[in-house]
């Protein structure tokens, strides 16, 4: 007996024969030919097929075991009717776990790929597989269930596909829409579900996968086929979809991913959106688009152990022209940027996009890029983090208002970049909440066309990346606040909106961008509580008026660190209103290129640290009637850059405190009217640019003083109109032999005028309407009288290098109450008897007409202090008939004083009235400091002190004028006698700043005669 036959006989004797199969199948099967397959074990000994048009029913409890390499080819309708606990099982022939040891080979188990699987052919179905188990398929590269064609109908529920050599289910990208619910895909070698079309994903619900080569549903054809596809998290295996190529959403179609959906991209693929994409997540369950290797969303989808995504592992979302409306709400887009695409790219115009509460993270390039397309997305409460380039790129200026309350951190640039800020809309208004971290970055010039407006509101920071400017043909409005100004600055400036370019601490530097360029007929533009920093590139100024007819209101604005000028009107006739502005540390001038007509539009501005901390007037010739206040001048100073001609029919009036500094050898030539309305406290001053004694170091060149002849002087021409000059100080004139003040026509009324340190004549008069209280000091000739018949009163000519008062022509007038003394040449020359009255300094005429020739006892002639000291013979010896015509002196001492305390008020000789008490207040003017009061004059007079909180002007006959405001808070107290020095502490706790003004009253013992001092004002800081 052969050995194997003996073994079989031995087994039969022991009762170990193999269990018999109910049936053995091969070939075509159907209910109407071979009958339904009942419960029990069945072998498949060859390929089986369900023909088209036929139905095959497999009942609960049936176990079909496939011998090696065979498949089930389904062309008709398959009905697998398993039940819970009595499933239909499809497995391999060696699998003893189902139906026992069918092949009689002793204990054995199946293994991957021992049979092929189900192959569903085109137009098959509708098939139903319920409560079934498929094991050990995958032979020959087939999958457990393969959709090998189109239009295949399948409903699969409560089933398990496990331990297959390849995929659990493979739709092969064919347009099929199975219903697969509550199924398990376990331990297969490749993917749980492979090659689905995106439209078929909603047919999968509540399935699970584990132990597979890929525990996910892979979409190999993500092009949306139907009008609308909506996918929920329950449609995705383990919450995740894997897209194996680009996801295309054609025009007119939509794809919606609901809360909790995770889409993982396998390669450098993207969402190519021509229609509409909606990612509708929630706070707890956002929609996540990420890379295949990102295990933080949807777990270890690729089953390769712990791994993290990396930037650029897929491309991103690409929104094409005309697409939308697309929505990203509570969505996350991670690890995009492959192929040069951005995480979210707007690749065309007319794109509709709403992004809310979305996170764009770890892109290899930008987070969101609009590519300069004219689109208007709504992007709110989103975060842009850790993207290698910019948070948001390519935004047109019109679309910025659509961004609000977003944040950026860790990006290559934590900002919203506007590469072309030229607007298309008529009006664009931007708030700080529209800007990422409060900052916009402009990548080129910002053009505002005629008829259009751009408004930047409080807190907006605009950073310029290169040598660009705001090119304003329309209207620009920067509407900041004291707490949140609008800032225009350079890209490297971290002091505004932080480290925008993410390069570590850096600061801007002058000239890193151009500035604001206002073109002809632009405006009305407004800069209110704004800051303009680090401009001046390309020869432009921080704010440049590049034309005429420009409307600008500028208030409470800081212009600093320009490489050129702060503001430049370029000589154009414009009338800006510039108030309470600061111009600091600009390399050029604070304000340049002014016409004199526009100066009055500037008020209460300040300047420091500039190349020239002043207003530079390049056209001082008025076109109309111009009035200028000290408040119109930067630091009280104007600088004239050329001759100033006042044409006939026009007038120029300079009010108290105005300081004009001449930048070269220029003059003022008056054919119309030039008026100065200074006060003794605040005279109008004309001097040279080098003179720091008035309005400080205007040219910012360190301490310097002027010198004689650095400019020419005033010339009132023979055609000049009626002009009034009061309280005018002229310094360092005399260039080209011009006089400090020359009058050629009897239309000039000149009172309280001092000319000092001139290279030629102080005054030269051919005719005059009226003149009084003149002083000429340290000139060549003090006063030259050439013609006319006017009377000149109360003048002082002292310390001049030539003649003090010189008649040089046909002058036939009179001179009274004059002092000419201490001049290197003659004190008087050409003055005849009958022309000089009650004057000092003429030896020839002394004793005649009240004249004397005695030392007038100036307080300090060498220093130019021409006031009279105690004991001067000139006190109360001026023209007795003169006292009623003037009450105000040059140095804030009334002219109507009883200087010799005889009870009679009489005029002194000279330009300065003597008082028996003068007051100086100095000290450490802070709470806790000290104040020193020094009074000089006649010793031993009883005195009293007035104290008030403001200045004023009240006649206090017969003691002079009180220059304190007695209508507000004031007081009066006894004080130490004259010729005293008193130091008092400044009380702690005073409110600061606190302005205080003082004036002293000195009286004789009987109290009947006395004088008021000059006022003295301080501010306790």
Question: Mind explaining what this structure looks like?
Answer:
The chain has 1 helix and 94 strands. The strands form 11 sheets. The chain has a 21-stranded parallel β-sheet that branches. It has a 20-stranded parallel β-sheet that branches. A hairpin with a 6-residue loop joins strand 93 (994-1003) and strand 94. The chain is rod-shaped and about 160 Å long. The relative contact order is 0.03. The model is unreliable at 1-20 (pLDDT under 50).
Structure described in brief:
The chain is 1% helix and 42% strand. The protein has 1021 residues and is mainly beta. It has a 21-stranded parallel β-sheet that branches. The chain has a 20-stranded parallel β-sheet that branches. A 14-stranded parallel β-sheet has the order 23-26-29-32-35-38-41-43-46-49-52-55-58-61, with no helix packed on it.
Topology:
Elements: H1 3-13, E1 23-28, E2 40-50, E3 55-59, E4 62-66, E5 71-74, E6 77-81, E7 88-92, E8 117-121, E9 127-130, E10 132-135, E11 145-148, E12 154-157, E13 160-162, E14 169-170, E15 179-181, E16 184-186, E17 191-197, E18 204-205, E19 208-210, E20 214-221, E21 228-231, E22 240-243, E23 247-249, E24 254-258, E25 262-265, E26 270-273, E27 276-280, E28 287-291, E29 316-320, E30 326-329, E31 331-334, E32 344-347, E33 353-356, E34 359-361, E35 368-369, E36 378-380, E37 383-385, E38 390-393, E39 403-404, E40 407-409, E41 413-418, E42 427-430, E43 439-442, E44 446-448, E45 453-457, E46 461-464, E47 469-472, E48 475-479, E49 486-490, E50 515-519, E51 525-528, E52 530-533, E53 543-546, E54 552-555, E55 558-560, E56 567-568, E57 577-579, E58 582-584, E59 589-595, E60 602-603, E61 606-608, E62 612-619, E63 625-628, E64 637-640, E65 644-646, E66 651-655, E67 659-662, E68 667-670, E69 673-677, E70 684-688, E71 713-716, E72 723-731, E73 741-744, E74 748-756, E75 761-767, E76 770-777, E77 781-785, E78 791-798, E79 805-807, ...
Parallel strand pairs: 1-2, 2-4, 2-5, 3-6, 4-7, 5-8, 6-9, 7-10, 8-11, 9-12, 10-13, 11-14, 12-15, 13-16, 14-17, 15-18, 16-19, 17-20, 20-22, 21-24, 22-25, 23-26, 24-27, 25-28, 26-29, 27-30, 28-31, 29-32, 30-33, 31-34, 32-35, 33-36, 34-37, 35-38, 36-39, 37-40, 38-41, 41-43, 42-45, 43-46, ...
Antiparallel strand pairs: 84-85, 86-87, 87-92, 88-91, 88-93, 89-90, 93-94
């Amino acid at each position: 007996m052969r050995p194997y036959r003996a073994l079989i006989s031995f087994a039969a004797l022991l009762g170990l024969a193999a269990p018999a199969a109910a049936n053995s199948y091969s070939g075509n099967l159907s209910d109407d030919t071979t009958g339904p397959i009942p419960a029990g074990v069945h072998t498949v000994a060859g390929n089986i097929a369900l023909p088209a048009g036929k139905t095959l029913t497999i009942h609960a409890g049936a176990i079909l075991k496939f011998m090696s390499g065979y498949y089930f080819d389904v062309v008709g309708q398959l009905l697998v009717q398993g039940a819970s606990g009595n499933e239909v099982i499809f497995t391999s022939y060696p699998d003893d776990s189902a139906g026992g040891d069918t092949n009689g080979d002793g204990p054995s188990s199946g293994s991957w790929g021992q049979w092929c699987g189900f192959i569903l052919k085109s137009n098959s179905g509708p098939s139903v597989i319920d409560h079934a188990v498929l094991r050990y398929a995958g032979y020959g590269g087939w999958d457990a269930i393969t959709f090998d064609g189109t239009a295949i109908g399948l409903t699969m529920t409560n089933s398990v596909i496990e331990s297959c050599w390849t995929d659990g289910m493979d739709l092969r990208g064919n347009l099929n829409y199975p219903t697969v619910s509550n199924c398990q895909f376990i331990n297969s070698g490749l993917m749980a579900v492979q090659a689905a079309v995106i439209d078929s994903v909603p047919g999968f619900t509540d399935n699970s996968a584990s132990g597979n080569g890929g525990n996910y549903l892979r979409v190999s054809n993500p092009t949306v086929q139907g009008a609308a596809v909506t996918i929920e998290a329950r449609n995705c295996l383990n919450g995740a979809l894997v897209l194996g190529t680009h996801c295309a959403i054609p025009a007119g179609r939509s794809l919606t991913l609901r809360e909790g959906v995770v889409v993982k991209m396998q390669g450098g693929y993207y969402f190519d959106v021509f229609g509409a994409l909606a990612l509708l997540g929630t706070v707890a369950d956002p929609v996540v688009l990420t890379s295949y290797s990102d295990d933080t969303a949807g777990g270890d989808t690729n089953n390769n152990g712990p791994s993290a995504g990396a930037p650029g592992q897929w491309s991103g979302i690409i929104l094409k022209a005309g697409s939308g409306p697309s929505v990203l709400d509570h969505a996350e887009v991670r690890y995009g940027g492959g192929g040069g695409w951005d995480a979210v790219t707007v690749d065309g115009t007319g794109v509709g996009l709403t992004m809310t509460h979305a996170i764009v993270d770890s892109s290899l390039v930008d987070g969101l890029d609009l590519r300069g397309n004219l689109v208007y997305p709504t992007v709110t409460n989103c975060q842009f983090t850790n993207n290698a380039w910019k948070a948001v790129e390519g935004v047109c200026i019109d679309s910025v208002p659509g961004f609000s309350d977003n944040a950026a951190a860790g990006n290559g640039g934590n900002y919203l970049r506007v590469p072309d800020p030229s607007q298309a809309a008529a009006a664009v208004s931007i708030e700080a909440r529209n800007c990422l971290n409060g900052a916009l970055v402009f990548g080129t010039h910002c053009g505002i066309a005629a008829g259009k407006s751009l408004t930047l509101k409080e807190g907006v920071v605009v950073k310029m990346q290169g040598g660009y400017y705001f090119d304003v043909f329309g209207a620009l409005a920067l509407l900041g606040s004291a707490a949140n100004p609008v800032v225009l600055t350079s890209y490297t400036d971290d002091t505004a909106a932080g480290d925008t370019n993410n390069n570590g601490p850096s600061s801007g530097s002058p000239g890193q961008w151009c500035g604001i360029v206002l073109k002809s007929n632009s405006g009305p533009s407004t800069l209110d509580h704004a800051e303009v920093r680090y401009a001046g590139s390309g020869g432009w100024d921080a704010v440049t008026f590049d034309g005429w007819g420009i409307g600008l209101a500028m208030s409470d604005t800081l212009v600093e660190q320009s490489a050129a000028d702060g503001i430049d009107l370029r000589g154009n006739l414009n009338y800006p209103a510039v108030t309470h502005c600061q111009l600091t540390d600009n390399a050029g001038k604070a304000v340049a290129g002014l016409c004199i007509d526009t100066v009055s539009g500037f008020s209460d501005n300040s300047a420091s640290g500039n190349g020239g901390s002043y207003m530079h007037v390049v056209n001082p010739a008025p076109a109309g009637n111009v009035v200028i206040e000290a408040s119109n001048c930067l630091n009280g100073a104007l600088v004239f850059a050329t001759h100033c001609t006042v044409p006939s029919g026009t007038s120029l009036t300079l009010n108290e405190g105005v300081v004009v500094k001449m930048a070269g050898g220029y003059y003022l030539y008056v054919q119309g009217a030039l008026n100065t309305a200074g006060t003794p406290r605040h005279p109008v001053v004309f001097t040279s640019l080098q003179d720091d004694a008035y309005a400080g170091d205007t040219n910012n060149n360190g301490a310097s003083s002027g010198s004689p002849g650095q400019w020419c002087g005033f010339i009132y021409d023979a055609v000049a109109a009626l002009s009034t000059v009061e309280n005018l100080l002229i310094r360092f004139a005399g260039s080209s032999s011009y006089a400090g003040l020359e009058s050629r026509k009897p239309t000039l009324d000149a009172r309280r005028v001092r000319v000092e340190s001139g290279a030629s004549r102080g005054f030269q008069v051919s005719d005059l309407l009226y003149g009084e209280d003149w002083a000429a000091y340290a000139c060549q000739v003090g006063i030259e009288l050439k013609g006319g018949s006017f009377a000149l009163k109360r003048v002082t000519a002292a310390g001049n290098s030539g003649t003090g008062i010189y008649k040089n022509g046909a002058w036939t007038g009179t001179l009274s109450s004059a002092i000419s003394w201490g001049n290197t040449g003659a004190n008087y020359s050409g003055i005849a008897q009958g022309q000089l009255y009650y004057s000092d300094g003429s030896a020839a005429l002394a004793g005649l007409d009240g004249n004397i020739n005695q030392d007038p006892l100036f307080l300090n002639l060498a220093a130019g202090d021409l006031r009279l000291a105690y004991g001067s013979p000139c006190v109360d010896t001026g023209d007795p008939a003169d006292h009623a015509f003037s009450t105000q002196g040059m140095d804030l001492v009334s002219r109507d004083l009883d200087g010799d305390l005889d009870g009679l008020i009489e005029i002194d000789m000279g330009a300065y009235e003597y008082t028996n008490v003068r007051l100086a207040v100095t000290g450490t003017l802070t709470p806790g400091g000290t104040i020193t009061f020094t009074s000089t004059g006649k010793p031993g007079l009883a005195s009293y002190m007035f104290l008030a909180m403001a200045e004023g002007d009240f006649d206090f006959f017969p003691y002079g004028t009180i220059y304190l405001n007695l209508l507000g808070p004031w007081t009066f107290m006894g004080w130490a006698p004259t010729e005293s020095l008193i130091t008092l502490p400044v009380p702690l706790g005073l409110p600061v700043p606190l302005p205080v003004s003082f004036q002293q009253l000195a009286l004789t013992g009987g109290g009947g005669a006395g004088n008021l001092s000059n006022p003295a004002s301080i501010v306790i800081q």
